[in-house]
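hey m, so remember when u said the tokens were messed up on ur end? i reran from scratch. heres the input so u can diff it against urs
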Amino acid sequence: MEVNRTTNLVSVLVFAVIIVLFTGGTSRRISKESSDNTAAVNDSLNEAPPTPGGGMAINPDIIKRLYEKRGDLFSPKWDNGEKIVQLITAINNAPADGLIPDDYHLSDIERLTEKMVLSDEPAVEDIDRMELLLSDALFLLSSHLAAGRTDHETVDPQWKASGRSLKKNWSIYIDSTLNTNNITEILQNLTPRHRDYANLKKALVEYRQLEAMGGWGSFSTGLPKLEKGMRHPDVSLLRKRLAITQGFIEFEPEDEDLFDQALHDQVVVFQKRNGLEDDGIVGKSTVAALNIPIKDRIETIEANLERWRWISDDLGDSYIMVNAADFELQARENEVQAFQTRAIVGSSERQTPVFSALMKYMVLNPEWVVPPKILKLDVMPEVIKDSAYLVKKNMKILKMDGSEVESSSIDWKHASQRSFPYMIRQEPGQANPLGKIKFMFTNDYDVYIHDTPSRWLFTRNIRSFSSGCIRIENALQLAQYLLKDDHEWSPDRLQEAIDKGLKRTIVLKKPVPVHILYLTAWADDNGTAYFGKDIYDRDKKLINALKQGPDGKIR
């Protein structure tokens, strides 16, 4: 339902006048239905923010208890017109955060307001109901801004990144908020403080404006591809399509059908913003991206705003962030990017997990102990096919006490089907998949960041090739960045230690937080949106959860 804000606010102000007129600032009773069940009220108030997802957040008895706490039995808290206007305005503005106003009883409030305005004398039960709706709307909106509208443990069970910890006593919070006139500021303070969140909100505004103007139509071409130097009527259509999201692209009037340098450059921009190979050639993948409906793009932005509401406000003054959907690692200092490099992440079958940890050390010229899953799925089958495989790969079979075992003594065909009482270790060298450096942080997934000898994979725009760990293009530069304040490790000494080929552990003077995330949309400071690939197919479930109404149906 579209909301006419002006009409709505006027109605709310009228309602506020009615409240004042019929309460006269004196105590009154709310209806008998909300007078019992104190134990249930206590249970409700002692909980963390209510389970996200719409519906009523609080028991009606909460209203009674909150009002009793200050000794002003049953005195209304919504008898101030300005306070009501602030709440209704916040509800109307919920779409700016990717939220839906009707999740906060907007339609019910409007209907009840109209009923009360039209009646000669509003019924006490209607006033009670309005109190409940407004208080519950405040509680729900606060909860959703503070911790997300959805339950990430249900929607994305693999999401284990450091979450928001506001440590609020929600009974005290809602009580103090009901007794203040500064609801706008209080709600604003609950939203994520991350720059990424604010930038995504800017992008959402832009895409909603584009949607209001009609968005973009479909684009197609009868040619296998369009590229610089070609002349064709479809070139003009391509230019017009790109202009919708990227601004007017200049061209010579007599060359409207010419694929010129300016158009080529804008195609490259589009490809970079949509996770495509930025070759300036409009082939199948670029055409497909051009035809993603604006509605879908808006939903993706909203989903990623929700993900930021799951993420802790305190990621650290300096930290490392890996976005698996962007195939990128960043080092940030006070929310500003200080280092960036391309990354390779896990395949859809062996996904890179989402979690937070603390990097404490790095290892130069690391050995690689083959993880159990890779041992079973990759190494054992290769040994069965080629008995010399381990020798070629410079791998050793070791007992748990470190003593070496001959490969010929193992029945490999049966070993893959039962417990394998050994570990396989690959020595440092050119074939070692960890390359020259690995960066270590304790976690439950045996995942870390490391170098790689497979340099050519970084030329691909979709880089989901690993078994879960994060391989990075510029491992040496990351090591230098992490050691920049450690005077014992100059860049020359670091390179010298690597060149010696000997394993060496360097403990960081100050551990660095690492956050491995999954974000399929992000934006720069100008609100320019970028979209990654949903390589793990997680967006749809989250988008549907955000669209789910109190009745469980998708809206």
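this time it looks ok to me. The radius of gyration is 29 Å. if urs says something different then somethings off w ur setup not the seq
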